[in-house]
Amino acid sequence: MMNIQNHVITIGRQLGSGGSDMGKAIADHFGFHYIDKEILVRAADIMDADEENLEMVDEKNISALTAMARSAAYEMPYIAKEWYIPTSEQLFKTQTQIMRDSVQQGPCVIIGRCAPYLFRHYEKHTSIFLQAEMDRRIERLERTFDKKLSRKKVIHDIEKEDRERAQYYHTFTGKKWLDLRQYDFVLDTTPFSDEEILNILIYYITSRFPELK
Q1: Nearest to 102 by CA among 149, 32, 153
Q2: Residues in CB range of 168: below 8 A, 6 or more apart
Q3: pTM of the entire structure?
Q4: Residue 186 — φ and ψ, nearest 5°?
Q5: Neighbour count for residue 95 (Cβ, 10 Å)
Q6: Residues forming beta bridges with residue 126, ordered by sequence position
Q7: What structural domains and CATH numbers belong to the chain?
Q8: Which of 99, 75, 87 lies closest to 49, judged by CA?
């Protein structure tokens, strides 16, 4: 049973809406454990898999057949660690256990990975969803990369990521990722600076949980 004393803030997000940046800033502000891509390090150790291969299926719906084809398992009697690619279901189960264990140990901010759904019945949980207009999403992603990508390429990546996250979320929750009714707080980050977004989110969180003020 999870420790009811620990707060859990989960953040769903559209690519380029600022979810990861805001999640990290919120975790730093409250002194909470931050769970995002770092979870792949622990999952790789547990699954005896290569972290880069896990990243290929992280928040994506990769079937057993596709994973087998990618790892060329049908040609190899023994799958070397650097070749092994698990299914999305295998990684999801491992990540879910890691997240639940982390919450037992202390308060957490968790990015994506169906966490808003997984912790929906948890007493001290609140779910946030961040969205933004396409131009703002493109602008944020262009700032993220060292070299400037073409607008066409960025839009393609955003649309692809949206499809993959929606499919992944539906596969493991039976819910629609963009059904905003399932989140406690939804924010369009388009008109705000990062500082303003953070201030809005902290105000919401401390209003929801006054003990965090």
Answers
A1: 32
A2: 59, 60, 61, 88, 114, 177
A3: 0.86
A4: -120, 130
A5: 25
A6: 9
A7: 8-208 (3.40.50.300)
A8: 87
